[in-house]
Amino acid sequence: MNFNTPKSTSLDFSKWTTVSTRLVKSEGKREPEWMEWSILDSIWDGLYSSYFLLYKSEPGADADDVLPIDRLTGSLAKALEHFYPFAGRLIKPEKDKAVRLFCNNEGAPFTHKHFDSVVSDLMDVEQFEPNELISGLYDVYPAAEVFDASGVPTLIIQVTDFKCGTRCLSTSWSHKVADGFSGTHFLASWAQIARGEPISLLPVHNRTLLGPSKSSRLAEPEEGIGIRTFKLSRRRMNELKAEALRDSQVGTLSTANCVSAHLWRLITQKRGHAPHEMTRFFNFANCRPRLKDCPAGYFGNCLAIAVSPVTVGELLSNSLGHAAAILHKTIKELNEDVIRDFIDWLSVNKFQWSSIGDELFMPGDPRSNLHTVQASWQNWFPFYELDFGGGRPSPAFRNAFRVDESFTGMFFALPTSIPSTQGDLSISVYGGKNLLGRLDDEL
Predict the structure, then answer these.
(1) 4, 401 in Cβ contact below 8 A?
(2) Please, are residues 258 and 240 in contact by the beta-carbon 8 Å criterion?
(3) What span, in angstroms and rounded, lies between the C-alpha atoms of 332 and 125?
(4) Which of 258, 439, 274, 443 lies closest to 368 in space, CA to CA?
(5) DSSP 109-161
(6) What does the alpha-carbon distance between residue 360 and residue 346 come to, in Å, rounded to a whole number?
(7) Labelling 211: which of 201, 243, 343, 443 has CA 20 to 30 A away?
(8) Quick check: 78 and 193 in contact, CB under 8 A?
């Protein structure tokens, strides 16, 4: 679902020229193989994680001096030797069968385009709205899921040149193949190879590590999904943290929990639910450091959902510190036993977002995405360290589109500089137009 309409200039296809297209294949020689999904991969279907990085050349310099195409494609071929699922295809072997991952080295589509204008004519970097035309998905991946014998690529790359000398590198990968940690692990490794350095952390492709540990049996719609992006200053984050710590009995609270608690309360208030109704906060947490047998380089999806349920009345009648403490407790309790139970539960239940927590997290309360706030903290992703030999990007964006109602109330937190612990954050909130219109500018 294309939920944001780019500027009219971006829809003027006469300004777009395709310079070249190619399939970049792994340099390594591997026998084709069907890679089995882990149960945590099964959560994700047609979603692609799409990001782009802007690299600015010096006045009078050529964009190829900053980000040479030959260096990008050559180093990509070397990176795909290690991250070979990104050279494969998503295939439905038979009609109505589940999508499978075929590591056949068909290659990642790599498109080089030219936009006959400056960056500001295509996007507003201060109030960025997702734009499909710079992602590469527009040409390669159909708007409706279509899987045939040839399959669809797991990784799609587009480089766009602008008249101002800026070069844009866009990468889009299937979330079913890799979560954000694995995806940015790939990007960081690709950049290391482009700089002539060895990969610092090799990927681990053994997805059986996250298999079920035992046989387990656990007993007003919003329309027109859109996005608003806010800048959250470090000063404002420090104020929220100080307020939460002052009002909480918990001695230590993370900045992420304090900001999440603030947004949970704000979005819930703007929705206008009755005090007796339930609201839930979904925190997507990286499980790699929480599982003793899971290596840091595990490649795939290794995310669990920490769910915090309370009534609307409890959330809004108490302090910010009370909400932050709830989130702190839920994250703290997300240990190996809980994660393994979650994997077991998924292995015997057909997954639906609305069913999360039925008996594992929060029994007996109503289910509705309109009562849910979801957080994806990506401030640790190394976007501003992605130097391919010509300098670091500025800025970087999550270019999300084709989302549905399951995204309403979800926010993504991205860094705006390095180190990420000192700079401002970019907060992108997804929701129905009626919800987004009620959000204030001051977050």
Answers:
(1) yes
(2) yes
(3) 36
(4) 274
(5) EEEEEEESS-GGGT--SSS----GGGTSHHHHS-SS----TT-EESEEEEEEE
(6) 10
(7) 201
(8) yes
Distance CA 366, CA 418 (A): 41
d(C-alpha 188, C-alpha 196), whole Å: 13
Residue (of 42, 175, 15) closest to 6 by Cα position = 15
In this prediction, residue 249 carries a pLDDT of 81
Domain residue extents for the chain? 8-210, 226-438
CATH 3.30.559.10 given to domain 8-210: yes
Question: What are 31's two structure tokens?
Answer: 């026998």
Report the candidate in 196, 229, 228 with the shortest Cα–Cα distance to residue 396.
Answer: 229
Is-contact 240 260, C-beta < 8 A? no
- pLDDT for 215 equals 43
Place of tokens 């590198």: 169
Please give the Cα distance from 29 to 161 (Å, whole number): 33
Helix orientation angle between 69-82 and 180-194, rounded to the nearest 10 degrees: 130
Whether 79 and 186 have beta carbons less than 8 Å apart is answered as: yes
Q: Which amino acid makes up residue 14?
A: S
**How far is Cα 303 from Cα 331, in angstroms, rounded to an integer?**
12
**SS3 assignment, position 404:** coil
Alpha carbons within 13 angstroms on the beta-carbon side of residue 326 total 24
pLDDT at residue 361 in the model: 35
The one-letter code for the residue type at 174 is S
**What distance in Å separates the CA atoms of residue 224 and residue 238, rounded to the nearest whole number?**
34
State pLDDT tens for residues 384-436.
889 998 888 888 888 866 666 667 888 889 888 766 556 889 898 888 877 88
- Which residues in the chain come in under a pLDDT of 70? 1-12, 60, 94-96, 141-149, 213-224, 350-369, 400-406, 418-422, 441-442
Per-residue tokens: 235: 């000063």
Q: What's the full length of the chain, in residues?
A: 443
What CATH code would you report for 226-438? Answer: 3.30.559.10
Maximum distance among all Cα pairs of the chain, rounded to whole angstroms? 67
The C-alpha angle with vertex 387 and arms to 386 and 392, in degrees rounded to 5, equals 85
Question: Other C-beta atoms within 10 Å of 32: how many?
Answer: 10
Res 104: pLDDT:
94
With a threshold of 0.85, does the pTM exceed it?
A: no
At 173 the pLDDT is: 94
8-210 and 226-438: identical CATH topology: yes
